[in-house]
Structures are given as C-alpha cells and as structure tokens.
C-alpha cells in the first residue's frame, strides 16, 4: 500500500486524505497544532489513516502534499522531502498571506517559491483550482463524457506522470500546463481557476489566461 503524506489537513488536505483512503492508499495527516488535534479526522478516515507531525508525514509519504497557507511554506520540512514528489495545492492570496514581492512583481510563481524551498524535491502543482468540497463529488471514471479535468504543472516529467496517474485514479482528467514557471496560468482569477471544466475547456482557459501587470 502506498502512502500519501499530507502537510496540512484543512479543507483541501482532509479531502485529499478522503480520496486517498477511498482509493486504497494509506494517509498520514498533519497540521501545525499537532497530531492530537486530528483525532476526529483520523477516526472518520479509518484504519488506513494516521496523524503525525509534518516531519513524519514528509518522511512517511511516498508522495507528499503541501496544502497550507502559502505564507507558511518556509516551515515545510525540506530534508525528509529530498528527492520526493511533492504536490503543491497552494495559492497566493495577499489578504491572507501578506505581500510577497516576487509574486507581486510577477517574477516567480507561488509554486516556484515552494520548489526553491525544496530544491531536490519534484514539485508538481495540482488541485489548486478546485473548491475543496468538489474533490469528493466531481470525480468520475476515465472515459466518462465531459469528465472534469485538473491542471498540473511541474519541472520533472516523471513526477508529472505519477501525479497524473493519481489524479486519474481519483476521478479526473489531467491537463499538463508545462513547467512551474507557467503555472501563473492557473493561479487565482484566471479563466480555468474554479469552474468545472473538461480537458478541452481547461486548455482553452489556460491559453486565454493573461498575467496581471506587476504591482
Ligand atoms: N479551500 C479550497 O477550496 C482551496 C482550493 C484550492 C487550493 N487551496 C489552497 O490550498 C492551501 C490549503 O487550503 P485550505 O483551504 O485547505 O486551508 P485551511 O482549511 O485553512 O487548512 C490549512 C491547513 O494547513 C495547516 N497548516 C498551517 N500552517 C502549517 C504549517 N506551518 N505546517 C503544517 N501545517 C500547517 C493547518 O493546520 P492548523 O489548523 O493546525 O494550523 C490546516 O490543517 C491554501 O494555499 C489554499 O489557498 C484551497
């Protein structure tokens, strides 16, 4: 059984943990307050789930998801994530995260900031443009007409193949946007961010995205 490690167990992290156990993975969930505070979620998830510290979730996950407010990515433990696939669900909301100069200047994407913090990890942006609740309601089997599609971006082709297979297993088509530097095309306020779209519609939305001017 493969293990999904989750750093962050809020709206998105808890939903990805639900999908993981539903599809036969073990899930190790973590947050900032400590494993004891996750007893309710672990009870709901059942025997394939356990709570741990963020460092333990990073160590134990075959794939690890970072799903926390962007302002906190500096605290993500880098050493146990060395060489691993790290899924980045994070978005930049200045009203929540404060102003981050490189993002305001459009000289980096939020996923590039996480990749820089985790230099030897293989960061793949995914699950950042879907409302958390829809993760467990919108999945359908491969081949379903008009199947919903999710975007991935990343700099490592093999890691993207692995994450694509996971997303497909979870019930969604995948559109590969390219490297992390292009992931601004699926940041907040872009056409494909939020709406329920199939792969063709997602591709059109990504192509139509316009990067806002620097502030
Ligand atoms: N909500 C959505 O529908 C949605 C959709 C797509 C993407 N996103 C993005 O995905 C990320 C997570 O969103 P969310 O809505 O799931 O957030 P959330 O509900 O506020 O949950 C955040 C989680 O991160 C944990 N956390 C915070 N700082 C941490 C740290 N330093 N180390 C370990 N865990 C930490 C929190 O733990 P404590 O509670 O113990 O502090 C909590 O479990 C954000 O960047 C968000 O913008 C959200």
List keywords for this structure.
single chain; 215 residues; alpha/beta; eight-stranded mixed beta sheet; 8 strands; 31% helix; binds NADP nicotinamide-adenine-dinucleotide phosphate
Cα-atom radius of gyration: 16 Å
Q: What is the molecular shape?
A: globular
Helix content: 25-40%
Secondary structure tally: strands = 8
Please give the order of strands in the largest beta sheet.
3-2-1-4-5-6-7-8
Could you state the order of secondary-structure elements as H and E?
EHEHEHEEHHHEEHEH
Main beta-sheet annotation: 8 strands, mixed
Low-confidence stretches: none
Structural class based on helices, strands and sheet pairing: alpha/beta
The helix tally amounts to 8
Strand content: 15-25%
Report the mean per-residue pLDDT as an integer.
98
Question: What are the bound molecules?
Answer: NADP nicotinamide-adenine-dinucleotide phosphate
Oligomer: single chain
Ends apart, CA distance between termini: 47 Å
Account of the 3D structure:
The model has no long low-confidence stretch (mean pLDDT 98). It is built from eight helices and eight strands; from the N terminus they run βαβαβαββαααββαβα. An eight-stranded mixed β-sheet has the order 3-2-1-4-5-6-7-8, with helices on both faces. It is globular, with a radius of gyration of 16 Å. It is an alpha/beta fold. Bound molecules: NADP nicotinamide-adenine-dinucleotide phosphate. NADP nicotinamide-adenine-dinucleotide phosphate (NAP) binds next to helix 1.
């Amino acid at each position: 059984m493969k293990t999904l490690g989750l750093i962050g167990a809020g709206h998105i992290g808890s939903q990805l943990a639900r999908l993981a156990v539903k599809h036969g993975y073990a899930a190790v969930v973590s947050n900032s307050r400590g494993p004891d505070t996750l007893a309710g979620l672990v009870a709901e998830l059942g025997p394939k789930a356990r709570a741990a510290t963020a460092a333990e979730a990073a160590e134990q996950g075959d794939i690890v998801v970072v799903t926390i407010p962007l302002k906190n990515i500096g605290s993500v433990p880098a050493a146990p994530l060395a060489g691993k696939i790290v899924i980045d669900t994070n978005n930049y909301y200045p009203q929540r995260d404060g102003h981050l100069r490189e993002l305001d200047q459009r000289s980096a994407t939020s996923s590039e900031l996480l990749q820089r913090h985790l230099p030897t990890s293989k960061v793949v942006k995914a699950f950042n443009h879907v409302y958390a609740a829809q993760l467990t309601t919108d999945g359908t089997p491969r081949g379903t007409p008009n199947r919903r599609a999710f975007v991935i971006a990343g700099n490592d082709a093999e890691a993207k193949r692995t994450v694509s297979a996971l997303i497909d297993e979870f019930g969604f088509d995948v559109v590969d946007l390219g490297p992390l530097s292009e992931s601004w095309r699926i940041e907040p306020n872009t056409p494909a961010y939020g709406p329920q779209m199939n792969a063709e519609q997602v591709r059109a939305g990504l192509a139509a995205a316009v990067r806002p001017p620097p502030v």
